[in-house]
Specification:
The structure holds two protein chains of two kinds. Chain A is 38% helix and 16% strand. Chain A is built from five helices and five strands, in the order ββαβββαααα. By secondary structure, chain A is α+β, with helices and mostly antiparallel strands. In chain A, strands 2-1-5-3-4 form a five-stranded mixed sheet, with helices on both faces. Chain B is mainly α. In chain B, the strands form two sheets. In chain B, strands 1-2 form a two-stranded antiparallel ribbon. A two-stranded antiparallel sheet of chain B has the order 3-4. The longest helix of chain B has 45 residues. Chain B is elongated. The termini of chain B are far apart. The chains are: A alpha+beta, B mainly alpha. Chains A and B meet through strand 4, helix 3 and helix 4 of A and strand 4 of B.
Amino acid sequence: MAKYRLTVNGSEKTVDVDPSTPLLWVLREELKMTGTKYGCGISACGACTVHVDGVATRSCVVPVSLIGKREIVTIEGVASDPVGRAVQDAWVEKDVVQCGYCQSGQVMSAVALLKGTPNPTEKEVDESMGGNLCRCATYVRIREAIASASRQIKGAA
Amino acid sequence: MYASIRLLTTVLVLALFALSISLAAKPDRVNTAAGLAAWDQVYAVLVSPRCINCHTATNYPQQGDDRHRHFANVVRGPEGFGVPGLNCIGCHQESNADSTGVPGGPNWHLAPLSMQWQDVNDRPMSSAAVCRAVTDRSKNEDMDGPALLKHHAEADLVLWAWKPGLRPDGTMRTLPPISHQEFVAATRTWVEAGTPCPKGR
């Protein structure tokens, strides 16, 4: 076991866990932040996506020992960012969610996409979101919501 | 008498000249042969999975010893670092994550398309073709021989190939066919021979 001081959604948290523990389980089990989901456990589905220093990161495969001082943002904190807020609003507007299990990961990847590429092409959306799977197949509404969020961001700029 | 001395001197000068040409030419041939033999070793490393999996000609990296397409719809992206929602470093950290089986190293990314060592059908290119690409300064980020040697000796992602960490099943990833020390020694011999390339396509 080892102690790690993490910055999660702007707050400092200290956890005492095995160094090999994936960040996902630190968030869910130690910090009780269950918005980030466990899907496949091998970074194949994207349900566990969080931001680490702004990079969309698969928390299920990143041991907590490799996080260092980088800032973590989860689905619980992403709405404090204007792009995060726009994406969540668009998700509601387009009624994207069906079962909802993958959606926190989808939102986190969409926010990373729009922060890097505020006006993405369809190809850029497909490529950036290609690692996030949805068994309910809400892909069409996800694309519509990303386009809507992009328009909102442009309108606000 | 004087004519004999002149003749002898001329013969001696010609003999020395011929000898000097012979001595000068022989080491070159030896160096080139040694350089080409060393290149064979270098090439064997470059086309091994730990290296060539990220020197693709396609829009995606490969993984595994069978060099299959990287899972999770990972794509190259404009600069070889993935795309905003799906960056290489979104999984591949600064070092190997042995507990989860994800390899890592500083600044994990694909080699540029100019440094592709396989064709678009994922077949490794010939030794001659890879050698031409590696030595083409318009393709290799302007590296001359010494810079190539330094790259092979010190670049983080090159070094990673010999410390590739554990697979998700806990077994060790396959290493390149020779040690890093041997790889650097072969590169040095090849560079000192003037980076000769095999003939052919």
